[in-house]
Specification:
Number of strands: 2
Radius of gyration: 19 Å
Strand order of the largest sheet: 1-2
Order of helices and strands: EEHH
Structural class: mainly alpha
Strand content: 5-15%
Shape: rod-shaped
Length: 80
C-alpha cells in the first residue's frame, strides 16, 4: 500500500482512497449554504405563520428545514 505524508503532518495518507486530501473549492460554500437555507426555511415558516414556503405541507415545513440544515451539518464531518 502506498503511503505518503501530506504537508508537514505526521499522519500517513493513502493515495488511492484520497483520504486526507483537501476538499474541493465548492465544498465549504455548499455546506454553509445548506445550513443557511435550512435555517431560512424554518424562519420563513414561523414568520409567515405557516403561509410560506409551502402552505400545503403545514408543519412538515419545519422537518424539511431541519432536514436541509442537517445535510449541511453532516457535510461538516467530511470537511478538511
Amino acid at each position: 500500500m502506498a503511503r505518503v505524508k501530506l504537508r508537514s503532518s505526521d499522519r500517513p495518507v493513502d493515495e488511492r482512497s484520497g483520504e486526507g486530501a483537501p476538499n474541493p473549492v465548492w465544498f465549504k460554500p455548499l455546506m454553509f449554504g445548506f445550513m443557511l437555507l435550512g435555517l431560512a426555511w424554518v424562519i420563513v415558516f414561523y414568520v409567515s405563520q405557516g403561509a410560506w414556503p409551502i402552505p400545503s405541507l403545514e408543519s412538515w415545513n419545519i422537518l424539511i428545514g431541519f432536514g436541509i440544515a442537517f445535510i449541511g451539518f453532516l457535510m461538516t464531518t467530511r470537511w478538511r
